[in-house]
Each structure stands twice: as structure tokens, then as C-alpha cells.
Amino acid sequence: MNATRILTLVFGAVAIGLAYFLFSDIKADIDLQKKIKVTEKAVIERLKTIREAEIAYQSVYGEYSGNWDTLKAFADTGSVFIIQKTEHIKQLAYGAEEVTIEVDTLDKIALRDTIFTPSKFPNFDPSKLNRIPGSSKDFSIWAGHVKKGNNEVAVFEVKDIDPVDPTRKESNQIYSRKPLRIGSRTDVTTAGNFE
Predict the structure, then answer these.
(1) What value does the mean pLDDT of the chain take?
(2) Where are the transmembrane segments (predicted)?
(3) Which of 58, 71, 100, 177 is the most buried (most CB within 10 A)?
(4) How far is residue 100's CA from residue 91's CA, in Å, rounded to a whole number?
(5) Mean pLDDT of 42-60
(6) Domain residue extents for the chain
(7) For 142-171, what is the mean pLDDT?
(8) pLDDT digits 0-9 by tens, 10-22
(9) 146: phi > 0 → left, psi -120 to 50 → alpha, else beta; which?
(10) 27 vs 180: which has the higher pLDDT
């Protein structure tokens, strides 16, 4: 064999090896992006379910739950009240109006029959409400109050503490690039940073 043929075989083998490593590296990155997309979609759906449970809990108890066991039990067996508000307007002699509002509780309905219906939440399992999809960890949950004007307002925050996307960090300046969450510890909101 001459030197040209040996060099051709060596460089051919090196080229095939580099092509394989380049292909596997690109494929790994594509697979990671697919995993991030699928997992984050599941996390967002779970956060939306938690938000529905927190809003229902707040409508019944006047504040949000900061405890998973309490929120899961409420989502599983809790009920919301059906109320009817009737407004009565009475004309006063001097042109003003006197308004009275009558609130009547008509019935109560289980959350599973109103909010967590199979058509809206087909895979609803209250025992897994706290679990981060694709992880063995739980979401962090916090509930408290913030002062707005002269009022104390109930707030909550639920956050993914184990993001699958390595670029989602608390230190990010862009709010939508922080770990996925709903609510806020400082603002009166139930929105998520994915919306």
C-alpha cells in the first residue's frame, strides 16, 4: 500500500468518527429540546389545575392554601356554593337611590362536578396535584397576604423547583425565563409566567 491510500483510509475513518460524534451531539440536543417542550407543557397544565383549585379554595375560605395536603383534600372532596345575588333599588324622595343587595345560598356542588370535570381536566388526580410532571419532586407552594393600599390581600405562589430546561433559573432577568410558576409573593395575581 502506498502512503496516499493509507492517509485516505485514516482520514476517511477520522471523518466518519467526527460525523458520528457531530450527529450524536446534534441528536442529543434535539431530543433534549423535545423533552423540554413536552415536560413544560405538562407542568403548565398542572399549574393551571393548581390555579383552579387555589381560586376555588379562596372563594370558599377567603384565602389561599399554602399546604399541599389541605389543597389536595379540598380538590378531592371540596364543594363550592351556588349563590344568587338580588339587587333592590328604592327611589328616595329627593332623587337619590338606595341599593340593597340580598345574597342567597342556593346549593353547593362538588368541585369534581363543576371545576374538575372530565371534559376540562381528563386526567385529574388530586393526589398528584403537588407533583412536578417528569420529576420526583413537589412544586413549592406558598400562601400569605400583601398590603395593597390599606387592605391586606390574599396571595399565593406555586413554583417549579426542578425545571427540566437548564436555562430556567431564578437569576434570569426576564420573568418568563424564570422557573415556571403561577401567582406571586408580591403582586395580586393568579397569572403564570408562561402566559
Answers:
(1) 87
(2) 6-23
(3) 71
(4) 12
(5) 92
(6) 34-77+113-183
(7) 90
(8) 888 888 888 888 8
(9) beta
(10) 180
What is the grid cell recorded at 2?
502506498
Q: What is each CA distance from 99 to 6, 17, 67, in whole angstroms?
A: 99, 83, 40
**How would you write the chain as a 3-class SS string?**
CCHHHHHHHHHHHHHHHHHHHHHHHHHHHHHHHHHHHHHHHHHHHHHHHHHHHHHHHHHHHCCCCCCHHHHHHHHHHCEEEEEEEEEEEEECCCCCEEEEEEEEEEEEEEHHHHCCCCCCCCCCCHHHCCECCCCCCECEEEEEEEEECCEEEEEEEEECCCCCCCCCCCCCCCHHHCCCEEECCCCCCCCECCC
Contacts of 20 (CB under 8 A, 6+ apart): none
Give me the residue label for grid cell 338580588: 86
Would you call 168 exposed, middle or buried from its count of C-beta atoms within 10 A (0-12, 13-18, 19+)? Answer: middle
